[in-house]
């Protein structure tokens, strides 16, 4: 039974309780002071498509917007 949960402690007293539960072999603390990564979307998808494909996509979007505005 492999259940993994991410929790945020709202009270420092919970740290002691978690360590006590770990000593009783009820839980296993994997990481402490875990900071979720805050990757910008531009960095995440950089290089996902080629520059040429990106330019074609931008051109197509501009064309669709002009058609939409012409209605």
Largest sheet: none
Indicate the radius of gyration in whole angstroms: 24 Å
Q: Which structural class do the helices and strands define?
A: mainly alpha
Total helical elements:
3
Q: Give the helices and strands as they follow along the chain.
A: HHH
Provide a short characterization of the protein structure.
By secondary structure, the chain is mostly helical. The protein contains 3 helices and no strands.
Q: What characteristics describe this protein?
A:
mainly alpha; single chain; 71 residues
Describe it.
The chain is elongated and about 65 Å long. It is mainly alpha-helical and 71 residues long. The longest helix has 19 residues, at 51-69. The chain has helices spanning 13-23, 41-44, 51-69.
Furnish the topology, listing elements before pairings:
Layout: H1 13-23, H2 41-44, H3 51-69
